[in-house]
Every structure is written in structure tokens, then in C-alpha cells.
Specification:
5 helices; about 270 residues; about 30% helix; globular; 4-stranded antiparallel beta sheet; alpha+beta
């Protein structure tokens, strides 16, 4: 009986080791979720559209020399294929968002068509909630920190009415496209609670322009998947070139249309 127990335990131990080895091999060789990569690519494309609409609209409104204190916030909303960008601020009770300017795409294809409201247009739904979400996330983003460079903010509607609020560094030099130092917050539908925070990159890479560069490359340490702002970076950068991303496990390429392609295990693509 004792010998039988010893043989049984040895057998089980070998079986256990075999199972662990199989699971380890499956885990190591598993590919990233294609649906998840497609979702990242789509959010990155929306961010790039938002970014373009916002800066073109901001330049158009600035040219009108708006009264000081009137424009404290811009918010972009995609309507069918194009965007509308509104400028204004929350009232003191934060019950209304007061819109003084609305910018849409002009015949030139840029966001320069400005509609001026002599009496501010009042919104108590989408823009009010969006503005509250931005203010809440901005307070969290700035808490206890001094930043020596300007940041852009973008907001995308998310599932179940929630918001994704992004902060990423703005260019401070012509033809230089910074990447990194960016954060994304998940905010509740009413804009009153932060439900999650994702640090997408830590350090900021300025991406100094160089002649005859055919692609970019950076390593990612925060996760084993690309970030929404990686796609934004590729789509915003000029001239348009793809970006290769190396994570601890995987290699990717983001093409100039925002598509994320999985290239294989990092150790196999780059070598041990």
C-alpha cells in the first residue's frame, strides 16, 4: 500500500509538471487579442480626428479675439463623418454648458466655419456632462504636479455613457511630434466619478525630425499592447511613416492608416 502511494504521487507529480509546461507554452506563444487591437486602432483614429478638428477650430476662434473668460473649454463631437467643436464654459452651478462658438468643416475641408452665438447657447446634456468629465479628470491629472509644457485634452464617449478623457503632450516645436507622458481616465456618465486611470507611457519622446527616415520605433514598458495614443502619434506625424513597437512579449507595427499589425514574439523578431 505504501509503495502504491509512492508510485501514485510520482505519477501525479509528472502529470502536474506536464500540465504546467503546456500551460506555460500556451501562455508564452499566445497571440494578442485581434479584437482588442482593432478597438485600440479605432480609438486612435478617433483621437487623431478629434485632435485635428480641435486645433483647426481653436485657431479659427482665436482669430476672432474672443472676450476673456468666455472660452474656457473646447469639446468636439463627431456627427456622422465630420466633427463639431464647441467653445464655452460651465456656469457657476455646473448645470449648463454655455456655448459661444461652434466650429464645423468649411468647403476648404478644414474646421474653420465659425458660428457665433451672441447669447450663449445652453446645453444641459452632452456638452455639460462632457465638460464635467474633463474638469474632474483635469483636476486629478494636475494634482500635486507642475508641468513645464502644454498638454492637449481629448474626450471620447465610451460604453454605457461613460467617458474616456485623454491628456497628451502638445508639440512645442514645429515638425516635432511628441509621444509619451500621457494618461487616460475613465469617467462616469454624469462626470462626477473617476472609474479608472491608465498611464499609457511614462517618458516623453520628442521624435526629432530626421531626413530619409522610413519608420519609427519605440519600446513599451507599461503593457504588452499598443496604446490609443500610439495610433494618434502615427496619424498625426508628418511625413507619414509607420511605427514599430516592442513590448516585453510582442512586436507590432502601426501603419499609416492606423492599422495595428502583430508581427510576432519580440524575442523571435528581434532575436534573443
Amino acid at each position: 500500500m505504501g509503495d502504491g502511494e509512492v508510485l501514485f504521487n510520482r505519477s501525479m507529480r509528472k502529470f502536474f509538471i506536464f500540465i504546467v509546461s503546456v500551460l506555460w507554452a500556451v501562455s508564452v506563444n499566445a497571440q494578442p487579442d485581434t479584437d482588442k487591437l482593432n478597438e485600440i486602432a479605432e480609438r486612435g483614429r478617433l483621437l487623431a480626428e478629434y485632435d485635428t478638428a480641435a486645433w483647426q477650430a481653436t485657431d479659427a476662434v482665436k482669430a476672432l479675439l474672443p472676450q476673456e473668460g468666455v472660452v474656457k473649454r473646447y469639446i468636439a463631437l463627431k456627427i456622422e463623418e465630420d466633427w463639431a467643436v464647441v467653445f464655452g464654459h460651465l456656469d457657476e452651478q455646473k448645470k449648463r454648458f454655455l456655448i459661444y462658438y461652434e466650429v464645423t468643416k468649411s468647403d476648404s475641408g478644414q474646421y474653420t466655419q465659425v458660428k457665433i452665438f451672441d447669447s450663449p447657447k445652453e446645453d444641459t446634456d452632452f456638452y455639460r456632462r462632457a465638460a464635467k468629465a474633463i474638469e474632474l479628470a483635469l483636476a486629478k491629472f494636475n494634482k500635486g504636479k507642475e508641468r513645464n509644457r502644454p498638454y492637449n485634452v481629448a474626450l471620447l464617449p465610451f460604453i454605457e455613457g461613460k467617458w474616456l478623457v485623454y491628456f497628451y503632450p502638445a508639440p512645442i516645436q514645429g515638425n516635432v511630434w511628441p509621444l509619451g507622458g500621457d494618461v487616460r481616465y475613465l469617467v462616469s456618465e454624469n462626470g462626477q466619478r473617476i472609474l479608472g486611470k491608465r498611464i499609457m507611457h511614462k517618458t516623453i519622446l520628442e521624435g526629432l525630425p530626421e531626413d530619409n527616415v522610413v519608420s519609427g520605433f519605440h519600446t513599451a514598458v507599461m503593457d504588452d499592447i499598443p496604446e490609443d495614443t500610439d495610433v494618434l502619434h502615427v496619424l498625426a506625424r508628418k511625413p507619414s511613416i509607420p511605427e514599430y513597437i516592442s513590448t516585453r512579449k510582442y512586436m507590432y507595427r502601426i501603419d499609416v492608416d492606423g492599422t495595428i499589425k502583430y508581427l510576432g514574439l519580440t524575442k523571435e523578431v528581434l532575436g534573443e
